Amino acid sequence: MSTTQKVVVITGASQGIGAGLVKGFRDRNYRVIATARSIKPSTDPDVLAIAGDIADPAVAERVFKEGIARFGRIDSLINNAGVFIAKPFTQYNAEDYATVISTNLNGFFQFTQRAIAEMEKQGSGHIVNITTSLVDHAVKGVPSVLASLTKGGLNSATKSLAIEYSGTGIRVNAVSPGIIKTPMHPPETHAALAGLHPVGRMGEIRDIVEAVLYLESASFVTGEILHVDGGQSAGH
C-alpha cells in the first residue's frame, strides 16, 4: 500500500455535488473515501465507497477504520452531505427536526471529530463544510429555518475550529452555495430559481467543486466562509 497520495473523505458522495467532488479530487490524483446512504461500490481502486447514514456513529467509525486500513492516511474531509426541508416553521414536526439535526449536525460532528484526530497525528489536514447562502440571505418564499439553524451552526463551527487548530497545520473552511443545479431541483423550476440570484442563473456543480478545490490548495486560507451564490449573500 502506497501512502504518498493524499486521501479525502467525502460525505453525500453518491450524486450531485458529492459525485462532482469525487471526480474533482480524483482528477487531482487524490484517493477518495466516498460515503452516502445509497452509494454503490466503485470499480476504481483508488475510490473506497462505503454505504451508510452519516448520522450513525458506527458508520463514521467504519469509514475511518476501513479508509485508513486501505489508504493509510486522511488529508481532507469534505462535509458535503446535508438535508434541506422547506416548510413553514410551524409545520415542521419532530421527525423533520430529528432528520435535519441528525444529518447536518450529528454527521458533521461524528466525521469531523474523527478526521481531526487523524490529521493531528500527521500535523496537517483540511476540512471543508458545505453550508448554504440562505444562512446570510433569507429568501421570501423559501422557508429555511432548520437549514439556517444547522448550516449557520456549521459556519460558526468552521471559524471556531479554524482558530482552535490554527497552530497544528489543520485548516477549516466552508463553501456557502446558492441554489445549485442538481437532481433535487426539477428542470421546470430552473427558470424561477435562476431569478433568485443577482447574476441571473443557478449555480452549476462545477462551481462548488472549483471552490472546494481552490480552498484545498489555498494554504494561507482558514476560517473562511466562501460564498458561491451568484451574489445572493451580497443582496439583490
TrEMBL record:
Classification via CDD domains: SDR_c (cd05233)
One annotated GO molecular function: oxidoreductase activity
Residue ranges crossing the lipid bilayer per the database entry: none
Keyword Oxidoreductase appears in the UniProt entry: yes
Keywords: Oxidoreductase
Entries under InterPro entries matching the protein: NAD(P)-bd_dom_sf (IPR036291), SDR_fam (IPR002347)
Superkingdom of this protein's organism: Bacteria
Similarity comment text for this entry: Belongs to the short-chain dehydrogenases/reductases (SDR) family.
Record PANTHER family: OXIDOREDUCTASE, SHORT-CHAIN DEHYDROGENASE/REDUCTASE FAMILY (AFU_ORTHOLOGUE AFUA_5G02870), SHORT-CHAIN DEHYDROGENASE_REDUCTASE FAMILY PROTEIN
Protein name: Gluconate 5-dehydrogenase
Taxonomic lineage from the root: Bacteria, Pseudomonadati, Pseudomonadota, Betaproteobacteria, Burkholderiales
